[in-house]
């Protein structure tokens, strides 16, 4: 098993599950860590600038600056008719980069740079506390706006696992299985048969959630399953009780071995230290 972290949570998965991608944002700032792997930070920054220019950003709408000396940043505006700017910044650390991105109102550039500075200032590598973004975590004050998602794939089992957490202002009554229920008639017209194996309450990591398991039998295709565990979250933007969605998909023939992996995942999920 490998121990993993995402946002405010820790969990474990077998090492056979490869990381496909992840995303994190806090204070509306998208943040990620990128390994250097013997690459030059300056070269990587220049490539980032060229990638931005490839978006057909006009040169007069691209402004390179620094959050702090040695902490490069760039503002750009893709649409001159929209008074908003995007900032991207890159902070070089021991063996990796901290990448930050924020979109805000034009004319607020100084405030945006200050926000980026505060966000990056709370970063610590390898800590067991805070909001995890990969190699390290942000240990600054929790935000009312936090979002984190991660996705893994097991090639042998042809199975994908995703975890998505997000703070909520208001609690929604929508449940992932509601979409299936609403589409039953349309699915039947397409010749798709489905079997609901689970649709019940289940508490995970002290969160009272709901789990669902559905097998889809599609004409001329291999039957597949979709498992979901869902917690609605706590209103008011509680960082430690966000909306949580765990989703697992794969061929129905692999459901038995995946069930054991899933149970371990659910049992291992827990909130990180404040």
Order of adjacent strands in the largest pleated sheet: 5-6-7-8-4-3-12-13-17-16-15-14
Give Rg in angstroms.
21 Å
The number of domains is 2
Distance between the termini: 24 Å
Main sheet? Answer: 12 strands, antiparallel
CATH architecture of the largest domain: 3-Layer(aba) Sandwich
Instruction: Point out poorly predicted stretches.
Output: none
Number of strands: 18
CATH topology of the largest domain: Protein Transport Mog1p, Chain A
How would you describe this structure in keywords?
single chain, 274 residues, alpha+beta, Protein Transport Mog1p, Chain A, twelve-stranded antiparallel β-sheet, three-stranded antiparallel β-sheet, 18 strands, globular
Structure description:
There is one protein chain. Helices cover 20% and strands 46% of the residues. With 274 residues, it is an alpha+beta fold. It folds into 2 domains: 28-142, Protein Transport Mog1p, Chain A (3-Layer(aba) Sandwich); 147-271, 3-Layer(aba) Sandwich (Protein Transport Mog1p, Chain A), CATH 3.40.1000. A hairpin with a 6-residue loop joins strand 15 and strand 16 (224-231). The model has no long low-confidence stretch (mean pLDDT 92).
Topology (SSEs and partners):
Blueprint (H helix, E strand, L loop, with lengths): L1 E5 L2 E5 L4 E9 L2 E7 L5 H13 L8 E7 L2 E6 L7 E9 L3 E10 L3 H13 L1 E3 L5 E2 L3 E3 L7 E9 L4 E8 L9 H14 L3 E12 L2 E11 L6 E8 L11 E9 L3 H14 L1 E2 L3
Antiparallel strand pairs: 1-2, 2-18, 3-4, 3-12, 4-8, 5-6, 6-7, 7-8, 9-11, 10-11, 12-13, 13-17, 14-15, 15-16, 16-17
